[in-house]
Amino acid sequence: MFSTAVLALALLREVHGQQDIVKPIHYNVTLDPDFSMGLFSGSVTIDFLVQANTTNITVHADSIQIVTEKVGIVNSSGHNLKIPSIDRDEKNGVYVIQTEDTLTVGNLFNLTIKDYTGNLRHQDKMGFCLNSYIDRNGKERKMAIARFKPQGARRAFPCFDEPHQKAKFCINIIRPSTHQAISNQPLQNTRYLGGGRFLDEFQESLNMSTYSVAFVITDYKSSMSHGRHRIFADLNMANENVNLRLEEGADLLSKLEDNIGVKYPLSKIDSIALPDHEVIRGEVNGWGLLSCKNSSLAYNLSDPELQTNALEMSQSYAEQWFGNHISPVSWNYTWLNEGLVYYYGYLGASLIGWDAMDRYVLDCTQHALALDSSGEVTLNSISNGTGLQNYKAGAIMRMLQHFVTMDVFQKAVRLFLQTNAFEAVSPLDLYNAVQRIIDIENCHDLIGDHSVNTIMASWETQAGYPIVNVTRNYSSSSLTVTQARFSSNLNGSSVVDNLWYIPLSYTAETYSDKQFCTTKTDVWMSQRNMTIDGVPSNGWIVFNKQQTGLYRVNYDSENWRRITGCLREHNISEIDTLNRAQLVDDVFSLAQAGQLSFDVAFNLSTYISREHAFAPIASFLNNVMALYNKLSPENGHEQLRTYLGDMLNGEAISCLSDEENVNDTLSEKLNRVQILNAMCIIGNEKCESYVFKKFQLWNRNPEKHRIPPNVEPATLCGGIRFGSQSEWDSLFAKYKTSTDDRRKKLYLNALGCANSNSTVKGFLQEILKFRDIDSKDKVDAFKSLVQSSLDVTFIFDFVTANFDNVIDTFPDALPEILKTLAKKLSTNQHLEQMERLKNRFPRWTSTAFEEPLQIVKGNVEFNERFGKSIKNWFSGYLASRKSGSCVNEFSVTLKVLLVGWVFVGINKYWI
């Protein structure tokens, strides 16, 4: 057998991604799946170039069995090399093939591995996987799918499975006559093998990474096309939205080509429709073959669904350039591609009419700030499963675009792609392209005295993100700015060791032209603290225009007072829409981190009753609903529901008619959706008055009284929230008879809005049964019930009493179930109860309970630290509310409170 030392050396190279001893040139892969057995067999030949003398070749092959006698290596003269041994390392998923003769540098060889076998069933659904779906007749159908990103190719064929080791591929699929095969390239030839089996041979691919390989073997009989675009779907799939997706796809591809400046190089781009629960963005996202959800092709989709579908399609199309056309030189740099995919995904959706750039701030920037609040993850660290690197990378790409301007960014990306076409890249390649354009355009003022590499390295290599503290000197028309790493850790303080190159932008109330849309850097901050002179002493100042920078901003109490006063009493449009969303997100995040009083946060937030734009209200709901979940009953939980209802019953809802009309903007439609959804979740009377009659009419005759798609989720939730057991039973019956994945999910989410404990108990019992609710829907059903519950203690008590059944029902999802519960558990009693539950089931202690217990402890600590002050604020708010005209009279109270802060002292965070 092969020596331990040589094997260890080979594995060391594998671990460090340094398999550059050989360079793959071409693959020829043949796969033969057996659906009935859940297995497959295959053969692969790999032409490779030796780049350093060696006597061993390490190939990735995970969950694949290779027969030693079926492995051969041939040199360029046709001579077969002797192979003394082949060693397998299951832990690292590699085989090490030893050769008797040295493979010398500069020579070409051919590696052949015949008749290997593998498994089509993988719990994590990565690799070459067997899938099933239920057709419209209720019959189970099977298909096989390649899910290779990031490291799934090694489960389909032995390969050099590193992103920089690109090669050309010829894919060959053996299939039954009942199925068809689709791959990256068009079909070149089909041969009949006998016994009802065919061999499909596809055209050779361009140079690409192993994760870009894609193929599907399906019995779908329906495909529709539009130019280069095809969609493969179940024969009974509604055609209206198939045509819409094809038209949008053609328009999107054309607009992305124009904007990026590099043509899509393939002759076709196919989409395969899969059941919703099987689809995660990018799971089938090869070069020229993508996946989409069945529900994305359905009739009567809501505007939020249509916008989300456009975003998902646009991100998949963007990945054709940033991930396939170029790929990362190392797995540590996947964030580079993902950041560009996010940026061009949102831009692309906007280019075809879906106005997604406001959502970009909410989905990427604010989401990244929330997920990275512990400040422990760098862009180059391996993914922790939260998607944080992708969101953070997307936010950083947007920041880069804004501080170098759109013109420079577009030219740089074009240069980046043209220079590195079909190659592997590192972040430095992008930075060099941006620097090159800045040098050519002679616009060095955009980056001050710094280089692009220096600026971006501070964001790429450091964990977390900065908080910028702004303290104004009102007597000298100057201000002091300091930076530190933001931390949400209530037991610690901001870490000061990190230092970022921060593009500061700001504007002031007294500027005649506030130029919120001009987002070039006003001042580069590269030190711990700095002074900015010549700023107005009157009015407010706002930093981080349009929240283009990935940082939070805190102000002295007087500036917070002035901002709040403007939003409460003046024209709110004096401050840009995205900055209003930023102010709401920052003020609540700072308060929850103990760096600002909750009085400041809630006082500012009362302006929301005057808000009408989607983004600020979405930011408000994201923060307040999270607070609503963790606030304990004794600390104002019910008062928060009253306050939230007051805020949402303001200008935004009053200027929206009860019924949609053709003149509604997308922002107005999205606002109606998010406000009504929140109203129904908290059980506000506005929900009841708006939806309950609609629900009753629909429940009696769904065909005659159709609910507009945009308000259907809120209407169904409100109907259950304010209805009786009979309404719940009726909707549950509709769930059981529906064969539409999208509608089943819609019904499940609404069923979770049950209000009475007896109905909740009945739903929980149904979830734990092995009938009626599909197994794939059980996790979603439980989560919808918890997330919509007005009495989570009742659910927790039921789970505790029936935990054996819970384990049986959710053997693979128990940590997710407990985590969902934990987010709404906030008392010491809850914590003690979960500790007892953990002790009863010790085998689950290290996996299922660890994170949920930390969440509950965090919620308890939060309530102990902030509960009293939050409750006191609500007491003052409700007292002013009872006195008459709440909004007007509370604004007077607000002024007194705010003025009082100035004399109490500077906020304790930055003294």
Automatic annotation (TrEMBL):
It is a lipid-anchor; GPI-anchor. Residues 1-17 form the signal peptide. The keyword Methyltransferase does not apply. Zn(2+) binds at residue 338. It is found in: Cell membrane. Its cofactor is Zn(2+). Residues 246-459 form the Peptidase M1 membrane alanine aminopeptidase domain. The record marks 391 as: Transition state stabilizer. Keywords: Aminopeptidase, Cell membrane, Glycoprotein, GPI-anchor, Hydrolase, Lipoprotein, Membrane, Metal-binding, Metalloprotease, Protease, Signal, Zinc. GO terms for molecular function: metalloaminopeptidase activity; peptide binding; zinc ion binding. Residues 540-837 form the ERAP1-like C-terminal domain. Its EC number is 3.4.11.-. Residues 23-211 form the Aminopeptidase N-like N-terminal domain. The keyword NAD does not apply. It comes from the Eukaryota. Pfam families: ERAP1_C, Peptidase_M1, Peptidase_M1_N. Its main location: membrane. Binds 1 zinc ion per subunit. One of its GO terms (cellular component) is extracellular space. GO terms for biological process: peptide catabolic process; proteolysis. PANTHER family: AMINOPEPTIDASE (PTHR11533:SF290), PROTEASE M1 ZINC METALLOPROTEASE (PTHR11533). Belongs to the peptidase M1 family. This is Aminopeptidase. It comes from Photinus pyralis.
